[in-house]
Design goal:
The structure is a single chain. Helix content is 74%, strand content 3%. By secondary structure, the chain is an all-alpha fold. It has one domain: ABC transporter involved in vitamin B12 uptake, BtuC (Orthogonal Bundle), CATH 1.10.3470. It has a two-stranded antiparallel ribbon with strand order 1-2. Helix 1 runs parallel beside helix 5, helix 2 runs antiparallel to helix 3 and helix 5 packs across helix 6.
């Protein structure tokens, strides 16, 4: 019989990992919901944000300044990517934008390999120390990750619900043509949404950086997992993507009790297949009235 404390430790791990995944998937969901673009470069924005965090840390020596610098830098890069590479493709065949974002992904990966090299880098933990969680010494920083991710997602929610530009974004999501007829600058909204998505990916990358070795290929894994989350949560459904992130991460974390972490990833793809078979609109998507 599996010890109850082992299950609880894995649940805590799942919740922490779920919040980071939610931060990445929220940006991806926002971009798809507004622009109908399947962004295959989203995980690489996560990776590039982590690398920018390491560069900023070498200059400033402060993790939180590095986090802010990476977020702002990736927001600006997101503006440039959207305006230069994606805006001209809006309204075309979806395959065109898929190929474009895949191309951007390859460019970012090879740039990171050229600029930073193949040797993984690591950011230092801004909060050190451990506490006793049943039978393990659990890092305080992992709880900081979950709290910071929740705070950023909460800030996005408040911005979307009460901010003037957040209301513009929600209006564009519901009816793009009507929003433009009401005077909302839809092209500007598209650009800002992509910048927000890139900034959230960068924040996730920097926060996650101290727990792993940062390398040029790390974004691919997060791209796959984020797409699983977006499908399970419901395409374009922000709240559903957050719940799906926690759900998928809990499944993977609990699966590691029986199998290795590499094999546990299979559980998320099983969930993806079952979702497409049973409820293609997403498990956490609201039921149409």
């Amino acid at each position: 019989m599996i010890p109850f404390d082992q299950i609880l430790v894995q649940i805590v791990n799942g919740l922490v990992n779920g919040m980071i995944l939610a931060l990445v998937a929220s940006g991806l969901t926002l971009i798809f919901g507004i622009m109908d673009i399947v962004n295959f470069a989203h995980g690489d924005l996560f990776m590039l944000g982590a690398y920018l965090g390491t560069t900023s840390f070498l200059v400033t020596g402060n993790f939180w300044v590095s986090l802010l610098t990476a977020v702002l830098s990736m927001a600006v890069l997101g503006l440039v990517f959207q305006a230069a590479a994606l805006r001209p493709l809006l309204g075309r065949d979806p395959l065109t934008t898929i190929l474009a974002t895949f191309g951007i992904s390859l460019v970012i990966q090879n740039y990171a390999l050229w600029q930073y090299g193949p040797v993984p880098r690591r950011l230092p933990e801004p909060v050190t120390g451990h506490f006793q969680l049943f039978y393990v010494e659990y890092p305080w920083y992992r709880l900081v990750i979950a709290l910071m991710s929740a705070a950023i997602i909460g800030g996005l929610y408040l911005f979307m619900k009460y901010g003037k530009h957040g209301i513009w974004i929600r209006a564009t999501t519901q009816d793009r043509v009507m929003a433009e007829a009401m005077g909302i600058p839809v092209p500007w909204v598209h650009t800002v949404v992509f910048a927000i998505g890139a900034a959230m990916a960068a924040a996730a990358g920097v926060l996650f950086g101290p727990t792993v070795g940062i390398n040029h290929a790390m974004g691919f894994d997060f791209t796959l997992r984020a797409f699983v989350v977006v499908v399970v949560g419901g395409m374009g459904n922000l709240g559903g993507s957050i719940l799906a992130s926690i759900f998928i991460s809990l499944l993977e974390s609990l699966a590691t009790i029986w199998v290795s972490p590499a094999q546990a990833v299979i559980v998320s793809f099983v969930a993806l297949i079952l979702t497409l078979l049973v409820r293609p609109t997403g498990i956490f998507a609201p039921t149409p009235k």
